[in-house]
Structure formats: C-alpha cells, structure tokens
Design goal:
single chain, alpha/beta, Rossmann fold, 2 domains, 6-stranded mixed sheet, 6-stranded parallel sheet, 10 helices, 37% helix
Amino acid sequence: MKNVGIASFKAGLIGKGIQASLTPALHMAEGRAQGFEYFYDLFDLDGVVGSSEPLTNLLAEAEGRGLGGLNITHPFKQQVIEFLDTLSDEAVALGAVNTIVLRGGRRHGHNTDWWGFAESFRRGLPRADLTSVVQLGAGGAGAATAFAILRSGAAGLTIFDQDESRSLALVENMQRHFPNAFIKAGADLSGAMATASGLIHATPTGMAKYPGLPVPADLLRFSLWVAEVVYFPLSTELVIEAGRRGCRTLNGGGMAVFQAVKAFRLFTGVEPNAERMLKHFEEMTRTPGRSAVAPGDGR
C-alpha cells in the first residue's frame, strides 16, 4: 500500500434510484489501494417529490458530517447548481454538475462525465474519423458526450432526440462553445447515417429494462465507429450488432470508470491508478445479479 498522507476520506452520492451504482465501490477500493480509509455513503431520494428542500438539507448534512466530496446524479445535476459557490468552466458549459468538492466551507462544482467519455474514446477508438458524427440522445449523458466529442476535434455533429426541443437546445449550447464546428439537430436519421463517420449512442436503449437497437441494423456500415454509453450490460445489442458488421466499437464502461477517476482526483488530491480502477470495474460487471443503471444516471 502507498501512504499518501490521508488517514481517511468521506464522500457520497446524491440521486434517485442509486442503490445499484458502481461508483461507491470504485472509490472505496481505490482509497484502500492508496493506503487510506474511504467511506462512501448513498443519499437516495427515490420517491421524494416536490421542492428542492431535501437536496439543500442533504448538502448541509454532508458538510456537517465532514464529507469532502459529493457525486451528483439524476435528477439533480442541474438543480444543484444554484446551491454551489463556484463552477468549473466545463460545468458552466454543460449546465450540469456531477462532482462537488466540499472544502473550506465552500462548494465547488465540476463535471467529470464529459472527460470520462473523452478519455475512454481516446483510449478505445484511437485515430477515429471525426469528420461527421451522429449522436442519439440529448439528455444529461448526451450533453456530456457532445461536449467531449467536440472538444476532441469533431468537425461535424448531428444530434437526434425524441424530444426535438431538447436536441435544438443542446445544439444551440454546443454551438456557442464550439463556433467553428458544424452542429445541427437531425431530422433524417437514414440520411445522416449514410454520410457519418461515427455514431455515439447516449440513450437508455440497450439496458435490460429497455432492450433493443437504437437504430435499424442496416444503417450500421462497416466503416463506422460506434461508441456506447450504456455499460450494463457492457455488450449491448448495439455493440454486438455493430461489431458483427465490422464496425470499430467502444462500450460504455470506460466513461463510467474515468468519470470516477477524475472525481477521485478532485476529491482527494491523490492521483488514482486508472488501470486498477478499470480492472476493478471489469470484475464487478462480471458479477451476476448486478442491476442496470441508466447512462449518466446512478453512476
């Protein structure tokens, strides 16, 4: 074990329906490996509706109990912003926070979801053609992946969502931050896929509760790369079918791990071992009985 000069650290996760989250185990195992005790609590507000009072109470409770950091997931990533003292540039750009550092009586908001996807993409799909990317989904996970792929150098991005107003809003926001990229809301999926160099899937389709393919199989050309955000199961129907048709594929596990890697670093000031965290994640996702959680939700 490595002595990092920290005796113990306390963190937590606030969200709804988060009992199956893999994030606590990732953080605690890495803390032990680094040589300090790491306590990670779940604050599950499942079933709570109405005002923001429960959220404000939990933030105060976390500070009172000496927690040094909080992860935030669905549906509080936007709602929590008004209760924070500072925001990172990325959190401002995305309008969402999934990581809060509690230090010196102040609350510092960050977004590590986008970096989680970007780092996973960099490692898993090196030299991918970013000329024309199609993305399915404009929710919380979609905002993070859109920001990440544009930050990675995408020249063109077409975003599809069942809620057209949501895709239009995401396009408008991304265009402000990436004025040199060609970004648009999609209307013709077949046409967009015919000229796409890659596909990002950022909806819940493919999870155990939402089986199926998010696109018709015949739109998956062998020249496409395909990046998934669903990570339970790791081999979604999209990943399997795309691989069968010769596409380069990326499962959603890397995004889940690397968002935790950066959050761990922000929380503790200690450099985590990303390879070790990846290995631990792989071990957990091979364990029978794990429940599925939505992309970007309950991580």
